């Protein structure tokens, strides 16, 4: 039986998801594209050899088995709600809505409709993150004493994007907050943040920073550092280190690590470094779309429920508040 997936939005990440879904064609998947820019949707559909809908209304009228939402944040909530009302499982990029408050209302609507919604925290499907989680669950690390998380872009996105992104913690570090809570099974209860802006002054002009660090405290008192930057010239760097009483593991420490050893005679890493998050998480994005397909077919549990994604957003909100006030902030739940 063929599973029909609709995809709304053919921007950069939308096209990436479309290509990934097309790669699942041998598994009985058919793709329909829709975008407010119909010409662009037709162009992409012609390149990929898939169907195109004239608009979002036409896509929903086609009654797909699932819908992938890859549009700007302001349209996330309306499209999630539309899919929920139609009884169509949805995958949506983070965040659920433009604010945590608005996201809570969406969660309530999802619950009322008994809807299925998977949020795009792709690190949960990344092999390295999964292996680290399994090592921790098997007791191989003993008890955790330190967690270190890094998200470092090679270059900043446009200032226009940053003006509406909600800040570095909400845009980038929210992935780290989600990963830490998912890996450990514990909530972050407090954050204390600092930031700097030594790059493009226009970033500060829109109220953001280009580099920031947060000290996060988990429920049992374990501490984690979460750092992010827009200016990692060596390449795109996402790593997560779990240090325990019996061992240490580090995600992302491979031959594409965006750094080099200063030790004499050490040739690691062999390189080249990843340039973008698309490269760094290419395998994770593939697993993410396959997971959504299996979720639509009722073959697996939801790997990233919206409630957990919203909880990570609450942590990001607290980090942003701490950055602005200079004080530790308890996460409000």
UniProtKB/TrEMBL annotation:
InterPro entries: Gfo/Idh/MocA-like_OxRdtase_N, GFO_IDH_MocA-like_dom, NAD(P)-bd_dom_sf. It is an enzyme of class 1 (oxidoreductase). It holds the Pfam family GFO_IDH_MocA_C3. Its EC number is 1.1.1.18, 1.1.1.369. Gene3D superfamilies: Dihydrodipicolinate Reductase, domain 2, NAD(P)-binding Rossmann-like Domain. One of its GO terms (molecular function) is nucleotide binding. Residues 302-333 are annotated as: Disordered. Keywords: NAD, Oxidoreductase. Residues 6-121 form the Gfo/Idh/MocA-like oxidoreductase N-terminal domain. Residues 130-249 form the GFO/IDH/MocA-like oxidoreductase domain. SUPFAM superfamilies: Glyceraldehyde-3-phosphate dehydrogenase-like, C-terminal domain, NAD(P)-binding Rossmann-fold domains. The keyword Metal-binding does not apply. Belongs to the Gfo/Idh/MocA family. This is Myo-inositol 2-dehydrogenase/D-chiro-inositol 1-dehydrogenase. The lineage of its organism: Bacteria, Bacillati, Actinomycetota, Actinomycetes, Micrococcales.
């Amino acid at each position: 039986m063929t599973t029909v997936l609709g995809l709304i939005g053919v921007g950069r990440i939308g096209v990436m998801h479309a290509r990934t879904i097309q790669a699942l064609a041998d598994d009985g998947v058919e793709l329909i594209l829709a975008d407010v820019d119909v010409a662009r949707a037709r162009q992409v559909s012609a390149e990929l050899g898939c169907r195109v809908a004239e608009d979002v209304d036409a896509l929903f009228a086609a009654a797909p088995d699932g819908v992938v939402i890859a549009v700007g944040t302001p349209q996330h909530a309306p499209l999630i709600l539309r899919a929920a009302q139609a009884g169509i499982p949805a995958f949506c990029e983070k965040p659920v809505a433009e604010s945590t408050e608005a996201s809570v209302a969406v969660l309530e609507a999802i619950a009322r409709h008994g809807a299925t919604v998977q949020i795009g925290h792709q690190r949960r499907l990344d092999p390295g993150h999964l292996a680290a989680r399994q090592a921790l669950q098997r007791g191989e690390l003993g008890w955790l004493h330190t967690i270190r998380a890094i998200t470092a872009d090679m270059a900043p996105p446009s200032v226009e994007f940053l003006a509406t992104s909600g800040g570095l913690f909400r845009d980038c570090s929210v992935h780290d907050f989600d990963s830490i809570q998912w890996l450990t099974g514990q909530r972050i209860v407090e954050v204390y943040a600092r930031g700097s802006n030594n790059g493009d002054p226009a970033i500060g002009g829109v109220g953001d920073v280009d580099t920031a660090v947060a000290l996060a405290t988990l429920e049992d008192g374990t501490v984690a550092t979460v750092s992010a930057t827009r200016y990692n010239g060596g390449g795109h760097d996402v790593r997560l280190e779990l240090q325990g009483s019996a061992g240490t593991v580090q995600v992302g420490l491979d031959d594409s690590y965006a750094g080099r050893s200063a030790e004499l005679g050490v040739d690691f890493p062999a390189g080249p470094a990843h340039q973008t998050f698309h490269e760094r998480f290419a395998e994770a994005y593939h697993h993410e779309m396959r997971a959504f397909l299996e979720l639509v077919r009722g073959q697996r549990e939801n790997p990233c429920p919206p409630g957990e994604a919203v909880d990570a957003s609450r942590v990001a909100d607290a980090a942003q508040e701490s950055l602005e006030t200079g004080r530790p902030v308890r996460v409000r739940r």
